[in-house]
Amino acid sequence: MEHENQTVVKEFILQGLARNWELQLFTSALLLLFYIIILPGNILIIITIRCDPQLGSPMFFFLANLALMDICYSMVIPPKMMANLFTRQKTISYQGCMAQIFFIHFLGGAEVYLIIAMAVDRYVAICHPLHYATMVTRAVCWVMVLCAWGGGFIHTMIQMSVILPLPFCGPNEVDNFFCDVTQIIRLACANIYSLEYLMFINSGLVTTMCFILLLISYSALLIKVKMVSGQGKSKAASTCITHIIIIFVMLGPAIYIYCHPFQDFPFDKLVGFFHTVVFPLMNPMIYTLRNKEVKVAVMRLLNKYNVIRLK
Asked: Which residues contact 276 (CB under 8 A, 6 or more apart)?
């Protein structure tokens, strides 16, 4: 094909979450209500951890960064999705589509690496408690967070380096409510068979390996906790279980989406909706609901604000 590096398609048509417009509007209204409740909660978690000196441990530092990443992640797809629903438009520009893909994989990859950093933190805290304060310093925490952001950037740049050179000359209909590599590369006017394998390795296989390694590490930590006696035994076990829940919530849908790039399944849209819209806002909330220290600190901050307002 001549001029393969030129993009003819200027916009893509997003088919949406459902064919029925009323159902899509209902879903959007629920999503808006969900945002009104959960999004301020995540912001409150960040403010609480930043302001409360009793939450100065590395675990809460990582939790605040996870909440920040999830808030950013939740801003990538839902705003455009709700705007299209309320205006009854289904289009997204080529630049907007590429931006969605970039930020989805940038923030998603960064979260995976941050979860790995949190697993390292728990390993040192449980297996080397006497050296924890000297090994996991604030400087080390910042390095791990920056590495998580850097890992996410490298991951998404691999995706973009494959997608951006592809020519798009039609069709331009995406059978989904957002742009992602698994659908977009199929619309390219080129042979993408080898590219689908690359996407499978870069997203599906890597995510699956991280999922397995994290499960093995936390299972080993749970066994270690049961063998050790002490006051913090139940707290350490609860923290490990919380991390395992987050691993399933975050990586389970990602494995489902990116481990079958060659064909579509009926539940793809539903899993994609929970993976990209619902679950990102829920991750910090799960940590908070299972952590007494954060709940007490939140109530302490709210009571302090009420006292100041009354004065």
From this structure: 73, 76, 77, 104, 178
| Locus of tokens 């925490």 | 141
What H or E segment, with its residue span, contains residue 185?
none
Strand order in the sheet with 91-93: 91-93, 11-14, 173-174
- The pLDDT, as a whole number, for residue 261 is 62
Q: Which residue has the tokens 């995706």?
A: 159
> Which amino acid does the sequence have at 165?
P
> What predicted TM-score, i.e. pTM, was given to this entire model?
0.87
Query: What is the overall mean pLDDT for the chain?
Result: 83
- With bands split at pLDDT 50, 70 and 90, how would you rate the model's confidence at 276? confident
The C-alpha atoms of residue 2 and residue 51 are separated, in whole angstroms, by 59
Q: What is the spatial distance between Cα 198 and Cα 42, in angstroms, rounded to a whole number? A: 35
Cis bond before residue 171 (omega within 30° of 0): yes
- What one-letter code names the amino acid at 163? I
**Which residues pair with residue 13 across a beta bridge?**
91, 173
Domains parsed from the chain with CATH numbers = 11-303 (1.20.1070.10)
| Token reading at 274 | 């929970």
The angle subtended at Cα 156 by Cα 155 and Cα 161, nearest 5°, is: 105
How far, in Å, CA of 178 to CA of 218, rounded? 33
Nearest to 249 by CA among 223, 283, 276, 226: 283
